[in-house]
Amino acid sequence: MTKASQQLFERAIDAHRKGSVEDAKTLYQDILRADPNNAAAYGNLAIIAAQQGDLVRAEGLFRREIGLRPDSAAGYNHLGSVLQQQGKWTEAVAAHQRAIALKANYAQAHLALGNALKAQHRLDEAMRSYLAALAIKPDYAEAHNNVGVVLQLQDKLGEAASAYRNAMAAMPAYAEACFNLGVVLHQMRDLAAAETAYRHAIAIDASVAVAHNNLGTVLRDLRRLDEAMAAFERAVELRADYAEAIYNRASVLQEQGRLEDALAGYGRALMLRPDYADAVNNAGIALQQLGRLHDAIELYRRVARPMPVHADLYNNLGTALLADGRPEEARAAFEQALTCRRDFPEAAYNLGNALRERGDLAAAIAAWRDALLLRPHYPDALTQLAHHRALACAWDNHEQDQKSLRDLVASGVRVPPFYLFAAKATAAEQLHCAEQWIAPLKPPHRDVFQHGVRHEGPRIRLGYLSADFHQHATARLIAELFEHHDRNRFEVFAYSYGADDASPMRARLAGAFDRFVDIAALSHRDAAARIHTDEIDILIDLKGYTHGARPAIAAYRPAPVQVSYLGFPATMGADFIDYILVDRFVVPESQQAFFSERLVHLPNCYQVNDRKRDARDTPTTRRDWGLPEDALALCCFNNSYKITPEVFDIWMRLLRAAPGSVLWLLAANVLVEANLREEAARRGVDPGRLVFAPVVPPPVHLERHRHADLFLDTVPCNAHTTASDALWCGLPVLTASGETFAGRVAGSLLNAIGLPELVTSSLEDYEHTAMELIRAPERLTELRQKIERGRHVNSLFDLPKSTAAIEAAYGQMWQRWHARERPVGFSIEI
After folding, report:
1. Cα separations in angstroms, 499 against 297, 354, 548, 769
2. Is the Cα dihedral 167, 168, 174, 179 positive or negative?
3. For 700, phi and psi rounded to 5 degrees?
4. Mean pLDDT in the chain?
5. pLDDT tens-digit profile of 811-826?
6. List of E strands, 677-718
7. What is the pLDDT of residues 63-97, one digit of tens each?
8. In whole angstroms, what is the distance from residue 8 CA to residue 33 CA?
9. Phi and psi dihedrals of 827, rounded to 5?
10. Half-sphere exposure of 701 (CA within 13 A, CB side)
11. Helices 379-391 and 345-357, axial angle in degrees (round to 10)
């Protein structure tokens, strides 16, 4: 190189160092015009081209350099790096290998070769290259970091964390290694250490949006949602189009119950990334949580067309369809999800739920078992399997099934509160279960309706909230109450979110209210807003946590006073329900500690009874129902999940003690008949002595009661409407009182009709009393006559008296609220 060229070269290097890139390029080009074979000038021009993103030109210039200087290890290494940037991995590997061949102790070339091999997923070879670099340069921070990357890809997380720490030891301000350490620690679920690592990375370089985003994901996992929100918001401030951070922020809003805000966030993420499946899924879930089922279904179906193999999408579509009462469509969606991903326990579980709603109990149980095979400790599947095995009277694992339900509640798992009624759960366990169930359904406090003192109107507005304003057990009890309310004191509204079955009962109910409002298509919030707009003073929830309930409506507190009544015989564990209507037998005052509501004791039986339920006019014979003409017919028309092995043992002993007698049971599902016949045979009873009654319309069902001699109740969960039906028809009911509300209802009914002698306090006493009765047929006749005589005298079927007591309770609740006094328990004496 001439002296003049040397001076130009030094000036070019100085200009490049000072940032005058164009001046540097001009000077290198001047050198090449004077000296076309100046390899160094080609090399430096190539570096500038690479820095400016002109990779093709950079590659050509590096090739010119090594053509002139074929022994230049640096030239081959630089060429390899430019080839990597263009995705030319095979050529890049060859270039780096040539550099190493020329200079064996070239640590940077070993590192670069490792990067090219890693990009080709040749991880073992990449690892050897990184280790070679470290053998030459033990404090090579980048090599330590990349060793960690390979180990992480190989799922060797502990070793990867050590490698990242080595990188940070070699270069304390190495933000990338610090970030990578945070990622691997998060994968290892060492959340506190991951937080520290991400915060360290941010302290080194606070401008990296992904570091703030990942810190937010750790904080979310630590349940520090406000801090997580701040981290995601900072990530979005740094990068406005950061769809993942926008999605993560929306997911925190969803967890905080701010569902409308979350939906807006998911929408923004989807505008940035239209194929963002997780955002679609969570948006659909938020719509479901808001009760906007049709919107959720439309969203999933719209997105399913361009993403036909997305298992999560079909699973969530199925859950929305199922919640919308469309089990056949839901089944198809869950099966599509399982076609996309066979090892999908949630889809198998949900398929079981859809099959249950279609009435295919055997297939549902099989699906829940499949879910447990895919995830052996799947609490939701275990819960459904335990309850529905009880419904099928499949008792091979009965004690463990019922214990499992209670254990899940104790461990903090959400279990449907209804499932505890037959599981020997205590009132304390029922309260704990209900509190866990309702917690995630409650909206943010800012979305809850507030109520100022209203001017006294001429009438108190009552709103009855239910899905059961059609042919249903609850409706069969309460219909006449609605008709009998004093319209001078009360204006009565129905808020219905159930199906219109076009039955005579539906028509009767629609005419029983001052206003009948169908809110089925409204979201939870919109349904609550409708109730609030109607200025309902007292809202009475008739569903609790029974099938199809929407407690999220009442959770918005649309009325100033809210009451639980009739449909759910336990606490709701909800701070938005002020009172529960009970009586002193079903829930003594001593049980107040196990109820979040204040106990309001009605004077006799808490249960109201419709006097207009009539049996079919056309009589039937015993033979019509498969009963012997002249033998004792014991019966229990309770749902099958209430039948326990202990109670069935007693029933079989009764049959053995009464030759020729039969036990008449409800054919509640297709499995129960075969299972109970098998259980009878195991207990030495001819299976033919079990007679199964098909499900028939209520008038027919009522008429057939006259062919039975004694109704045998169940415990720990009693007959409720079923016991009322039996007593209305004059059939004696023998019960054993349990420890909880659900196990004491029949006793309350019997006391109210004047038959306390049929209320026993233990299974031993229950069996003893039953034995006495079956050996004294005349006593059964006397009991039937006593019921007939007392039906219009005793309080059980005194609808006007029951209505007056309930109205007195409503009046006292309203007076307390209007005086701004807190709810307290009280008793009504009439």
Report:
1. 19, 17, 10, 43
2. positive
3. -70, -40
4. 93
5. 999 999 999 999 999 9
6. 690-693, 710-712
7. 888 888 898 888 888 888 888 888 999 998 998 89
8. 12
9. -120, 145
10. 24
11. 30
Q: Which of 423-432, 607-616, 819-828 has the lowest mean pLDDT?
A: 607-616
**Nearest Cα residue to 45 out of 25, 17, 22, 69:** 25
Tokens of 358: 């279609």
739 secondary structure, DSSP code: S
Q: Which helix (H) or strand (E) holds 733?
A: strand 733-736
Show the tokens assigned to 755.
């038959």
Q: Residue 238: its pLDDT value, please?
A: 97
**The one-letter amino acid at 406:** R
Give 317-326 contacts, CB < 8 A, sequence gap 24+: 317/284, 318/347, 318/350, 318/351, 318/354, 319/288, 319/350, 320/284, 320/287, 320/288, 320/293, 320/296, 321/297, 322/350, 322/353, 322/354, 322/357, 323/288, 323/293, 324/293, 324/294, 324/297, 325/499
Of 33-42, 180-189, 228-237, 800-809, the one with minimum mean pLDDT is: 33-42
- Alpha-carbon distance 380 to 388, whole Å? 12
Kindly state the tokens that stand for 784.
């039937």
Distance between first and last Cα of the chain? 117
Tokens of 816: 């307390």
Whole-number pLDDT of residue 513? 98
Position 201, amino acid: A
The domains located in the chain, with CATH, are 1-69 (1.25.40.10), 275-376 (1.25.40.10), 448-602 (3.40.50.11380), 623-797 (3.40.50.2000)
